[in-house]
Amino acid sequence: MSKAKHILASSQFSKSDLLEIFKSASEMKAVIEGGACEVMKGKIMATLFFEPSTRTRFSFETAMLRLGGSVISNADMMTTSSTKKRETLFDTGKVVSKMADIIVMRHPEGGAVTKLAEGSEVPVINAGDGAFDHPTQGLLDMYTIWKEFGQIDNLCVCMVGDLKHSRVFHSQCEYLKHFPVKILLVSPEELRLPETIKMDLSHNGIDFTELTDLREVISEVDVLSTTRIQEERFESVGDAERFRNMYRVDSELLSLAKKEMIVLNPLPRVDELLPEVDGDRRAKYFEQVSNGVEVRMALIKQLIG
Ligand code: NCD
């Protein structure tokens, strides 16, 4: 592994790291509003995306631009980069790091970002690798909870939907294990959270329960964490189709929930979260987008500031 400090996995952060990131992120709103920040002047970020993205790539790029840096980007690495000519990820990492000061990468395969980081001489950030991990999304989710409640301790967090394939849920579990929380894992039997993650939660003394009925528990939830069925990670679209509409967050469901509950979704949403909920005070998914920029600004500063 190269000597640069990377962000490759949610597991690399301790509880005190998380609190430090939240604090630093909360100072970024003022930086954005102040305009003309030059902290990253002369520094270049390369964003290498081998998988579709709207928010994550723009969020990293916005964060770098807000800090006064510059961006070079390829949103279509799989088809228009030298990967197509069979260049290894190690070599791509080596080459891009000769031009950029920091690299952000997304890839459909778990572990692919680590391979690129092995060749890179500059920090590499994992912007999602397959069903494995999405460290910065998890961080911005935790930051959103922390901002809303002033802490994470003693909350009841309910994750609902595709617990098997969602790297966002996997990352959230990795962070939540540092706090005394109760976790409710709501999914169909076939889409349960992977065993290794459950073992890790147990090992960290986290109280979690697996169930299939969301309505049964909705009244005790503080944070309702939702995401779409990750259809690209199923054997076939038809296979994913069976789970569509199994859970749906709508106004009627929210009428059964606490007034102070918050609803998270990393977006894009499909049919698991209805637009009729958007006007509800508890809907925080568009705020998550702004929070993501603040968190990523904090991370960039930490890595190359
Ligand atoms: C998520 C992802 O890519 O894992 N999106 C995001 O980063 N905001 C969630 C998803 O694709 O469903």
Average of the residue pLDDT scores: 97
Spatial strand arrangement across the major sheet:
7-6-5-8-9
The count of strands amounts to: 9
Radius of gyration: 19 Å
User: Which ligands accompany this protein?
Assistant: N-carbamoyl-L-aspartate
Question: What's a quick, concise take on this entry?
Answer:
The chain has 305 residues and is α/β, with parallel strands linked by helices. The protein has helices spanning 15-26, 28-34, 55-66, 77-80, 89-96, 112-119, 135-149, 167-176, 195-203, 237-241, 251-254, 285-304, and strands at 44-49, 70-74, 102-107, 124-129, 156-160, 182-186, 207-211, 223-226, 262-264.
Task: Using brief descriptors, characterize the structure shown.
305 residues; alpha/beta; five-stranded parallel beta sheet; four-stranded parallel beta sheet; 37% helix; 15% strand; binds N-carbamoyl-L-aspartate
Q: Can you walk me through this structure?
A:
With 305 residues, the protein is an alpha/beta fold. It contains twelve helices and nine strands. The chain has helices at residues 15-26, 28-34, 55-66, 77-80, 89-96, 112-119, 135-149, 167-176, 195-203, 237-241, 251-254, 285-304, and strands at residues 44-49, 70-74, 102-107, 124-129, 156-160, 182-186, 207-211, 223-226, 262-264. The chain has a five-stranded parallel beta sheet, with helices on one face. It has a four-stranded parallel beta sheet with strand order 2-1-3-4, sandwiched between helices. Helix 1 crosses helix 7, helix 5 packs across helix 6 (112-119) and helix 7 packs across helix 12. The longest helix is centred in the last third of the chain and has 20 residues, at 285-304. The chain is globular, with a radius of gyration of 19 Å. The model has no long low-confidence stretch (mean pLDDT 97). The structure holds N-carbamoyl-L-aspartate. N-carbamoyl-L-aspartate (NCD) binds at residues 55-56, 128, 134, 137, 167-168, 227-228, 230, 266-267.
